[in-house]
Amino acid sequence: MSTSLHQPGTQAQPARMWGLVLAAAFAWVVGYLLNGRFWDRVVYDVVGLDPDSRLGEAVHFFVYDTTKILLLLSGIIFIVTVMRSFITIERTRTLLGGKREGLGNVAAAGLGVATPFCSCSAVPAFIGFVAAGVPLGVTLSFLIASPMVNEVAVILIFGMFGLKVAATYVVFGLLVAIVAGYVLGRLRLERWVEPFVFETKLRGELIEPSTDMPWTDRLAFGRQEVKTIIAKIWPYLLVGIALGAAIHGWAPEDLFARWAGGGNPLAVPLAVLVGIPLYSSAAGVIPLVQALADKGVAIGTVLAFMMAVVALSLPEMILLRRVLQPKLLATFIGVVGAGILGVGYLFNAVI
User: Fold this and answer.
1) Kind and range of the H or E element at 164?
2) CB 243 within 8 Å of CB 61
3) How many domains are contained in the chain?
4) Which of 209, 211, 207 is closest to 132 using CA atoms?
5) Residue 176 is part of which domain span?
6) Is 3 exposed, middle or buried (0-12, 13-18, 19+ CB in 10 A)?
7) Quick count: other Cβ atoms within 10 Å of Cβ 345?
8) pTM of the model
9) Once rounded to an integer, what is the mean pLDDT over residues 232-240?
10) Helix (H, G, I), strand (E, B) or coil at 320
11) Is residue 118 part of a domain?
12) Best-predicted range by mean pLDDT among 8-12, 47-51, 208-212, 244-248?
């Protein structure tokens, strides 16, 4: 009797769960499609700002892009987090452990895209990989690819610049990670890693991902990850959008085209040097990248700037200094920076 009474409840719970998921997806699609028209009405009709004025352009850019990027982030993070519930860092270490250089660098860069982490995770990820026997160069390929070619960056670039730019960014971002990791590995720089890293022992067996996690837990994990990531990045996101709005509304049309256009050979290295001290996620820097591109900055220059921000940010370099001695850290910055410069110049030449 108790079994028959319990059965309908267990059937109703998944139905209600998926009904809520479908309702949320429908609301997301409607919000995304109506975003532009909604802010046109609010900014120009309700508030009364002139659409041709600098203030009107800047305010509209800020509110429209803030809403658009928050919608994209929430949807992307939720979907990718649910997908990532089938794979863990431990599983990644297992897959990479024992891989030789070359093939290992390719595998590490690919797994870096599927297993993104924030800069605060760089040190524990590095220690865990090296302690698990993953070669140094393979580990560095993973650490480069994970923040630079993550799913948020790729989908936002696709939404703002189209498939051609997004696909080219993925290809050359992965090439930077693969080649830089391979070069650093071939240099045999293990002697410049802090000794305690090699003395660290992993406790217990590596944990395999759970294949029987219920969907309720996976969806709850996705919702929590959306809240956590947006709570961490929203200040940088708003600053990036505000800077983009200011550039969009007030910067003279020919200012950036004159100083950072494709004809200036120093534009790409200057963009990299400006990007390194900044701290932002890919989501936070995308609005600034879009505003610079709209003002005539060459696409290779703005993408080199973005790569420098997410792959060579000063806070992440400070964290990596805990495990890399200064010579190795400087070599890491030099090799990755050279790869980013190459991508910037190549983009400017072909797009």
Assistant:
1) helix 163-186
2) no
3) 1
4) 207
5) 89-201+251-350
6) exposed
7) 19
8) 0.64
9) 72
10) helix
11) yes
12) 47-51
Structure tokens at 17: 């769960």
247, 292 Cβ separation under 8 angstroms: yes
Retrieve residue 287's tokens.
Answer: 């609005």
Q: How many residues does the chain have?
A: 351
Q: Which residue do the tokens 């524990």 mark?
A: 124
Q: Is 269 left (phi over 0), alpha (psi -120 to 50) or beta?
A: alpha
Residues 6+ positions from 324 with CB-CB distance below 8 Å:
192, 193, 194, 332
Residue type, 317: M
Q: Which two tokens stand for residue 110?
A: 């690919």
Interior angle at CA 299, CA 330 and CA 161, nearest 5: 120
Report the C-alpha gap between 147 and 211 in whole angstroms: 26
Task: Yes or no: say if 71 and 34 are a contact pair by the CB < 8 Å rule.
Answer: no
Buried b or exposed e, range 134-150, using 16+ CB within 10 angstroms: bbbbbbbbbbbbbbbbb
Q: Which contacts qualify for 162-167: CB closer than 8 Å, 24 or more apart?
A: 164/351, 165/299, 165/303, 165/351
Per-residue model confidence as pLDDT tens digits over 31-75: 989 998 999 999 999 999 888 887 888 888 888 888 887 887 788
**Is 236 within a domain?**
no
DSSP assignment of 64-132, as one string?
A: HHHHHHHHHHHHHHHHHHHHHTT--HHHHHHHHTTPPTTHHHHHHHHHHHHS---GGGHHHHHHHHHHT
